[in-house]
Structure formats: structure tokens, C-alpha cells
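Cont'd.
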Amino acid sequence: MPWTLDVEHELAPGLTIRRHRLHNGLTLISLLDPAAPVVSYQTWFGVGSRHEEPGRTGMAHLFEHLMFNQTTTLAAGDFDRLIEQTGGDSNAATWVDWTYYRDTVPARDLALCVRLEADRMHNLVLEDGPLEAEREVVANERLQRVDDDVDGFLDEELYRLAFTRHPYRWPTIGWMDDIRGLAKPDVIRFYRTFYAPNNATVVVVGQFEPAELLALIEERYGRLAAAALPGGGRSGAAVEVEPTQTAERRASFVKPTAAPRLHMGWRAAAQGETDWAALSVAAALLASGSSSRLHRRLVIERELCSALGCDVAPFRDPGLFRLSLNLTRDASLAEVEGEIDSAIEALAAGRIEEHELAKVKNIVETDFWAELDTCDGRAEALGHYQTVLGDFRMLFEIAARLARVTIADVADVAGRYLSRERRCLLMVEPEPDDGDGDGDSDDDSDDDSDGGDTAEVAR
Amino acid sequence: MTVPLHLEAAGATPIVWFTAALRGGAGLDPVGREGLTRHAAELARRGAGDLGRAELDAAVDELGASLEVDVDRDSIALSGMALARTLPRLLELAAAVLGRPRLELAEHEQLVRETRHELDDLRDDDSSLADRFFNLRCAPGHPYGRTTLGTEATLAAIDLAAAREQRARLWSRDRLVVGFAGAIDPAAARDAADGLAEAIGGAGSPPLPELTSVESAPGLRIYVVDKPARSQCQMMLGHTGPRYGTGDFTALLPFETAFGGMFSSRLMQEIRVKRGWSYGAGCRLHRARIGSWFRIHLAPTAEVAADALRLVLDLYADVAANGLTDAEVDFARGYLTGSLALGRQTARQRMRQQLQHDLLGMPADYLPTLGQRIAAVSAADVRAAAARWLRPADVCVVVVATASQLVPRLEALGLAVTEVLPHDSY
């Protein structure tokens, strides 16, 4: 038998997730939902911007765009037209640890997805014309998401400031000079290195006939050869370990905004580490919901901010615990910083009520199920955990870890991770009426790093 | 009168979504007090029954739930999501917000300040800025052209008495539509819907005035919303469109799809695929209770923005003059009928579609027969509707850009700028 069934896991009564392995290393995760009139077909590759190198940043993302072009069996544009002919929808996304391709089609059109995705995994044709056109599109995408978007700009700068060695220091979309300079031979080498069945997980969620699914995938993917992946496995070659940050880093910029923006980041835990769950609970205590500590204090009581958010990067290696704030026009940075310091100190001291912790756990539980509402949402969750942490069941393990977090756990991670010397702080201030100071940096950080952003970018 | 209920029960996950929506929205704001309906709805969410703002926020969050207000030109909605086990308490809170809002002076004053902060945030987002100015300039004076959020001046003109008066005018069980989806059974959903209606009260309230369709001004008008240091331009252009659900609207759906609704559409192919000028390019016929607009959007780099506008105007003139090919209509029709399943894959999506169509004034059989209606549209139907509605000579263009860069390039192409507007002027 070409297939090995190695895991079964029940999502809910009557909804069983199955993981199969094909002889060439392809992983298949399937979740049959007979009530769904559609099927979501996603292909997750274990390649993202972490697998790039300085001078060639943006390769994974540019490549994502190129995957919608010509193959040896299809003319340029045929992929989109064949999916659209069904009424379906296709897209893709790239981040630091992965790239994935998504097709959502009426259930009757599953076979088309299998054929198209297997084809472009192996048969892509890279011509100069489409490469140059997509290079322009990506440059435009960068202008839209980063250069002309203050939050995108701050995200990029925050990771550039926080990371000095690890590839998380450069943006997934790439530096503009690199996007302009990526050469065709490098692009082809990238494809041959990372796009192979043993670096891919196919996730199928929705209505399908299980035996037919296995047969279709075996027929289309079974003859594809495994590749020699860098480092010998799905995780790719080793990357540089980021040294411990020992002093606060700051930078400020002037932009044509109406009011100041502030982004702060602390090096956090990797998603697979147990501390990640406690840090996520800390983030929710600070900024999830209108009654969260910082929202209540900064937005409602003191009116120093109009909006704020806090999250922990879901990365394979440690990313950032990130806090982003839209200040009000007359707010003082010192006052905002003081409030944030106080809130973190309170967490580190364990000044958390049990009912507050229970509240956050309810929010987490609701979010967990809400994300699994659609076929696409389910496939995305399964694909993410399989690709980033090596096992889709980590979706459930992390949910269980979140449910087990105690007040002492939150205090512990707040004390260890969210200290001032581990912090990076970036500020954008409105330009003065007579000024032209866009992008002028007043960087007083303790190093001169050269990278960093995690903004997810889609086709 | 029994409150209309749209129920899509499904028990695979333990979540319930609901929406309680009132017909009538920000389109009924008085002139000079734009933002009033939204203000009244938001104010109700900031303290109701025995709970002040902080207590109400905490009560919702403790359930792990959400309870959000959304106001558009045609409706006022309160939507919630909760685990099934916490739904009864969330419904109690929703009933208080709908029926027993405090509408306190201190909260009113703070909400005005917070809305001003929202205006600041909006100005940092070029796409939102383009949308706001397009509405204003495409249909000056029409309720759809006015802002639902308000302006500095109109916010200053909103007082607590006006907010209370607007609430008394618009909140009535006679105009309520309720939807439930997820882990809830029909009897519980009906009881909950009736409970929300009872909380609102206001039975027998007078009917609201019906808005008339948007009429945009004639001629090509180009407005540049001047913002410093833009490397890219958010561009929107369009004019009046047909009312949703009419024969002409349905006949224009294949046009919307083939011209700018798919990746293989003409706009995406010409702007993005062939030239790489913009990350995206598309068009949309807006769905509303009255005829509103047809709008094209793209975001070219500053260097090519003038050329991109010229090209889009030419593409639009060409398709208006010559129509789509039969093959384009066939393809678009197939795409549209197939894509209906994608929007109906979950109980939540199906409930929201039904509720939205109810608010849009569509008959109950409209959604179930939409696929057949689209399938019945012929290429001749598309061309006839296009001849009635596509007006390439009467286009309002709004571009968020750095005017000193863009205006000379536009003028060099013979595209006269009607007015340059400071980005923080509205």
C-alpha cells in the first residue's frame, strides 16, 4: 500500500481528522464534513522567509506569486481560469515558516484541485516575462502594505530592531532592493530545493469520498520524487540563534500620520514551547476585549490611546510578544509607557484575579472554535500546526495548555520575558506642518541590525 | 407581529452567532448631524440596565463572548457570538442594550472624543480615506454620500438629546429582524428572538421615510485627496448603479465579474498581470436597499498612477461601447453560479446572507432562486443592462495621492483635476 495512516483524531462527534503518509514523503491531512457543500484544498510547504538569505530576501513570497503561472501542461492564466470555471477561489500566503496555497471549490471539483496542485508542485515553467511582471506586482504590494502603511512599516522596523542574527530580522515580503534584484537562476534553484512532496502537507477539509481522495492523490502525486532538503528534513537548514538582548532598543520616525503610533516588542517563546501559552494568556489579559487591562486603562479611563492590540508570534523559533498602540493626538509617550510598565509589573507580581483568568480562558475557547467554523479555517489551522510544529495535534495540545495556565505561570513569564532590557520600542510621530521628515530615523538602539517583519502577505 | 427569524442550526461546534438588526440606519441622519445614528447605537452599548460601561464590557468578556454594534446606511445591528453554555447570559445583556440603554452624558461626551480619535486613525488608512471621499464626491448631498462616522463639525453638533431622540425614532420591534446560527435549537431561537423584540418595544411606530436612489453628477470629475509622501495612490472611480435585486442588477452581475470580479477579469489582467501596475484592480456593484453605485478600484504606484487612470478610463469606455463577448458572459455566469456554494458553506454564512437579504428588502425566494436567475441571464441581457447603466463619460474619480506629484502627470495626459482636497479636510 502506498499510504500509511498514522494518526486519527476526533475534532467533534462525527468529525475525524486523519493523517496519511505517501511513500514519497507527502503528508495528507483530511477531515470529512458531509454537511459542507465545498472542499478546501490546501498545500502547505515548509518554506518561508526563514529559508532565505541576506541579499535574496522576499524569494519565498515572490515565488508564491510565480506559482500561479505557466506549467509544462498549462498555459499562463489557465490555473486561475480552471478554478474560476468551477466558481471556486484560490489564493496563497507566505510567512516566516511556511508558504501555503489554498483552493476552495464546490465539492464536485476536488479532482481538479488535485490535478492542478500536483502539476505545479513539479512542472512550473519560469519565463522572463511573468517573472518581471510579478516582480512589479510584489513591489506594488510592498508599497501598499509597508511603505505607505504606518502599521506595516512599524511591524517591519520592529523585527529589524529586535533581531540581529536570526532570519526573522528581514520581512517576508523582502527588502525592496532584493525584490528588484532576485535573479531567475536563484528562483529556479529555490523551486527545485523546496517544492517537493516530502516538504509538503496537503490538507483537505469538506465533502469528499475518502477512498477516492486517496486514489486521486496517489495517482497525481505518487510519481513525484522526494527532494534532498537542506538540513536533511522538513525543518530546513539550521539558522543562526539570536543572542539574548541585554539592553532596551529604541527608534523613532516621523510620518504623515494624524496621531502617534507606538509598537513594542519583547523576544518571546516559540509556539511549541510551554511558555508560549502563558505568554498568550498574558497578552489577552493586557489587550483582549474592552475590559482587558490596557484597553480599560489607556483607551477608556485615560483616553491616551484610540486602539491597541497585543499578540505572541506563532513561530517555530521565538518571535515577538508585540504590543501595538494608536495614541491619541495629545497623549504623552511617557505616560503611555508608564501605564504599560505598571500593567506588566502587576502581571509579574501575580496581581491577577482568578475570575480574570477564567475570563481570558473563555475568550480563548470561543476564539478556538470560531476559527474552526469554515472549511478554510479548519484546513488552515491543521496545516499551520503540522507545518510549524510537525504535528497537527498541537492545535489541541496548545488549546489544552492554554486551559491549564495558572496565575503563577503568567507571573513567571511576565517576569522572565517582559523586562525592560528585553524590550524594543518604536514610535512614529506626526510630521510637523512644515516638515518633510518621512522615514527619518532617530535610532538609538544598541546595535545596527538589518532586518525584520512578520506581516503575513498574500497573493 | 412575530419578529422575522432566520435560523441556521448546526451542532458541530459549540458556538452560537446571532444578529438583531433594525431596518433604517445612518441614511436617516439629519443633515449637519452625520454620525448621529451610529453614535446613538454605540452609546447604547456603553451602559445598559444595571450595568455601566465597564461592568457591561466585563460581563461580555467574562463569557468569552462578543457583542458588537454595526451601523450602515440601511440598518443598525447588534451582533453577538458566544459558547452555547454562555448564550443565555449574553442574550440578557443584548436585550438590555437594545431595550434599556443608559445613554448617559459622560459616556456621550467620551464617545464624541473617541470618534474623533477614530477619524484620526481612518486618515492613516489610504483605502478608507479614498472610500470616504468617494462617497462624498460621487453623490454630494445624498444620504449615501454622507459619512456614517461623522466629521469634526457634525460630531460637535450631536448632543445627548439628539442621540436619545434618534434612538426613540429608529429603535422599534416593528423593524427588527433576528438571525441565529450554530448550536441552538429552533424553539430556543424563537424564544430568544421574541425576547429581544419585547425588550426593544416601540410597537406601532410610524414608518420611516424611504430613501431615493443615488444620482451622481454628470461629466468626468477628478478629485485628488492630497496626502504627503505617498509612493502609491488609492484610486476609486465610478457612478450611479442599479438597485440590488432588480433585473438590471442581476443582468450586470456577469459584467461585474468579467470586468473586475475575478483574477482573470479584464481589469486584473490589464493592470496587474500585463503591466504589474497595481497589486489589485477590480470593480463592484454596491448592494443596498436603493440604487447606489458602481465603482472601480486600484492602487497603482505614484509613477504610473496617471497612466493607470487613463488606461482604466479607456478600458471602461471600451467595455461600455462594445460590451462583453459571449464567451466572457458564459464564463462569468458559470463562475457566479458555482461560487454560490462558497458563500453558504457554514450555518453562520447562510444566516448572515438570509438576514442581509431581508434587510435589503429582497423577497424570501430571492436567495434560493438566485442561481437560476443568473443562469437565465443572456449575453443580450448583459449588453442591454450595460447600455442603460454604464456611463464612462460621467465618472467621479477620487485619488489619494501626493498632489504635487500626481496633478502634473494627470494634466500632461489631458486629465483635468476638478479639485485638490487636503486629506484631513473631511
